[in-house]
Each structure stands twice: as C-alpha cells, then as structure tokens.
Amino acid sequence: MSSNTEKHPPPPPPLVGFQKFQADLVSYLYADHGASYNQNVKKLEETTGSKREYFLYGLVAVSCIYMIIGSWAEFVCNLLGIAYPAYVSVKAIRTQDTADDTVWLIYWAVFATFALIDYFALSIMSIFPFYWMLKALFLIYLYLPQTQGATVLYHGFVDPLVTAIDKKFALTNQQSTRTAIDENNNVAK
C-alpha cells in the first residue's frame, strides 16, 4: 500500500509546534537537575535578576549571529543536522519499537532530498548571508517532535515526488519492453 493512501494524524502548524517546544524547554530548565545545577542557576538568577530562560534565549541569539558571520557556520549547521539525528537514529535502531525507526528514516529521506540544495550553498551564501542560520533552523524544525517537520515535508513533498518518479520509470520501462518486443518480432520476420 502506498503511503499516500495511509492516514496520518495531522502534525501541528509550525508556530504551534515551536510554541510547544518553547514551553517544554522552559519546563526542562525549571526541572530538578541535581543540587549543583539548581544552586548555580538560582545564584545566577539572583545575581543578574534575570530568569534562566533569558540566558538560553541569549545563547540562541549569539548562536544565530554566529551562523551569519562565523567562519565555522557550515560546520555548526551540519553538526545540528547530522550529528544529533545520527546519534538518535542509532539509539532508535537499538530499540524493539519500529515507530521511532520510521520517524528517523523519514528525517533522513527529507534531509537527503533537501541536501541537494547544499550543492549550491556557496552560491546562495554569497547572495543570502542568512543561509546557514535558516538551514539550521530548518533542520531543527525537521527533527523536533513538537513540529514533526520531516513528516510534513515527507508526506507533502518527498513521497509524492518519489511516486511521480516511480510512475515515470514504470512508463519508461513499459515503453522499453514494448520496443524490445517489437524489434524481436521484426528480426523474426
């Protein structure tokens, strides 16, 4: 059965997914991570008068600026898009559940499809300096469970593209077979 005909629960809109991720992240920051973490973060908050999530937002802002002007921006972007997904893919393979395998297989299929754009990355970078930052955000969008970006793009773009390619190959194969049969019949006459 083609995956085009299977029913999938609709993923949340991207903004809702990122809002859910932000809420989950703030909950994580305020969770108990041991006495040392709790004491140091509390001391930092008291000393600066700022909430802990503002420090994280500052770190994200600095990272985004680096992705625009930094000399290792491509490396950092690929680290986000390859290293973490590869790590969790291996962990998924080690589990008995195949649902997590499917999630990461879909990620890699979408990643590979859009990696073709990277062939033109240096050309794009010379015109559009925000390329690595936007690509990093795109890759994070793909693998966040709150956004399900890879699933959205797989079902909306990659799977229909592969289906169209399959149909084209099948048609070409039928035409080649007919041509070979016709040539055989002509030789036999």
From TrEMBL:
Presence of the UniProt keyword Flavoprotein in the record: no
InterPro entries: TB2_DP1_HVA22
GO cellular-component term (any): membrane
Locations listed in the record: Membrane
Transmembrane segments: 54-84, 104-132
Stored Pfam families: TB2_DP1_HVA22
Primary subcellular site in the record, as a coarse category: membrane
Key words, A-Z: Membrane, Transmembrane, Transmembrane helix
Lipid bilayer topology: Multi-pass membrane protein
Family per similarity comment: Belongs to the DP1 family.
Name listed for the protein in its UniProt record: Receptor expression-enhancing protein
Lineage: Eukaryota, Metazoa, Ecdysozoa, Nematoda, Chromadorea
